[in-house]
Amino acid sequence: MLANVDGRESSNGAQGVVSNGSSNGTHKPSVNGSSHNGKEAAHISHANQSKYFGHDREEVTRLLIQALTDMGYQKAADSVSADSGYELESPTVAAFRTAVLDGAWGRAEELLAGATPSGLRQHGANGLVLAPGADRNIMRVWLRQQKFLELLERREIPRALVVLRNELTPLCSEQFQKINFLSSLLMCQSSADLMAKADWDGADGQSRHVLLSELSRCISPSVMLPEHRLAVLLEQVKENQINRCIFHTSADPPSLYSDHVCERSQFPSEVLMELDQHTGEVWQIRFSHDGTRMASCGMDPTVIIWSVPSFEVIHTLEAHQDGEVCNITWSPDDSMIITCGRDRYAKIWNTETGACIKTLERFWEPVSSCVWFHDSQSFITGSFDKEKSLCQWDLKGERVHIWARKHRTEDLALSPDERWLVAMDEQSRLHVYNVATREQEYEIEVKARPTSISISQDSGFLLVNRTDGEAQLIELATREAVQRYRGHTGGDFTIRSAFGGANESFVISGSEDGFVCIWHKSSGIPVERLAAHQPRCNSVSWHPMDPCMFATCGDDSKIKIWSNKERVRSLGQSVQHSNGTS
């Protein structure tokens, strides 16, 4: 895939397609109904006209043929096609597929030239039919681009140059950046260099399957089924059942054999354990990414690292002697933790030894937040210091970049795909940056001052907690608020919310009145409102591997671990108290 030429991405799981006929039924069964006697043909004709539990019989049958082919059951697929009289696709469609997968670019363009535009398909037509909105010229560009790259891969530079000048340039006359990039590929000294620069895996890789997948999206699904269509539909069924399950606590995907439901008794709603090692208010807790440890911080200048699930103290870090610890962040590989202090320092710690690896240069104002890049080699700090409100650092403590915009940063969130960086200022604005360009893409103005932000694991949604006692779910691509969560109370202090549970099905938040509130993420329906801390519940963290466990902390200097009734009963008592030493 040449992602950095035109932004195309493989669709419908094309990377997983292998060349054994799994892509949209590469094998075309030769079925025309002529082998059946009159009685059998009449039976088939009657069956084809009826519905299958309200569904179109032809659609269901073709989906089954494709799925059987995908799974390698070719004889069974041929048998279903023969018995039903339905073909997976017409000879023309099969020929187009074969041409693309075999690299017969002239034949592929010839078949594409004869494709019927959307809305003009005649009854009984068996050729290619373009989907609504499909652009034939763009499809030609994709074919010729693949042809150009394969010629370069074979080091046939003169032929590749002819394709670029005579075939691609006329179609991309206004796309100067694309033509310039393709021209630069002529300078690649080897196939490996070409593949790296073009983000492309070669003719013998999956590039032709990726191309076919993209082309198939431009062809009417009535003649060329989208790849693995039945599998996609079944996945949608599972997602729908999960989204409708109010108490979803199962990490395993739902079975297709029966409707999915989780019992309320399995939902974490009781205190499993109390931890009281802190001597002051506890402001934040975070589980490590692998779920084997937890870190906590607050008003006292120490950070505690706990083992999970025993919740014994592993390390007590004397993190910031001159002030409170505002924020803690685990590195993606869990080998390090960064602590952010009101003493205007940020420090990197080794989580195995408890040793301080590096103390960053002192800021002019408190350091409020930090996010790591996925390679665990660099990170970004947020600070009240407007001159260094957003800074990227390496592990040596050297500044890599300072963002030019001047605003006070009170919280940070980085999307897992590293596309979005969101900074929360001290007023009511959220600054959304493009990580690659480091430029601000847009701002979001919220009605009440936000107190915390976080981004979902699919990188699609931003969760914003606000001082007016409302949390909002905002779709980052559209900038629209798609859900609101009410029932907790806000105030002048930081109250943190988070995603959590199996498949991130829930939104959880602390509350100014000491409760912890949980909502169903998709519907916004309140699930639980539990008395947690007095006078205030400051922060929450859901265990990343155990959907039946989350932690809360508050102004009462306590951390509470929550689970379901069954797990609490298995301990033989309603609450276990721990001082962190056993």
UniProtKB/TrEMBL annotation:
GO biological process: proteasome-mediated ubiquitin-dependent protein catabolic process
GO cellular component, one term: GID complex
Biased composition (Polar residues): 10-36
Coiled coil start-end: none
Protein origin, superkingdom: Eukaryota
Matching SUPFAM superfamilies: WD40 repeat-like
Residues in CTLH domain copies: 89-159
Keyword terms: Repeat, WD repeat
Region (Disordered): 1-42
Pfam families: LisH_WDR26 (PF23627), WD40 (PF00400)
TM helices/strands, residue ranges: none
Matches recorded under Gene3D superfamilies: YVTN repeat-like/Quinoprotein amine dehydrogenase
WD repeats by residue range: 275-316, 318-359, 530-563
InterPro entries, alphabetized: CTLH_C, WD40/YVTN_repeat-like_dom_sf, WD40_repeat_CS, WD40_repeat_dom_sf, WD40_rpt, WD_repeat-ST_regulator
PANTHER family xref list: WD REPEAT PROTEIN 26-RELATED, WD REPEAT-CONTAINING PROTEIN 26
Protein name according to UniProt: WD domain-containing protein
Organism: Podospora appendiculata
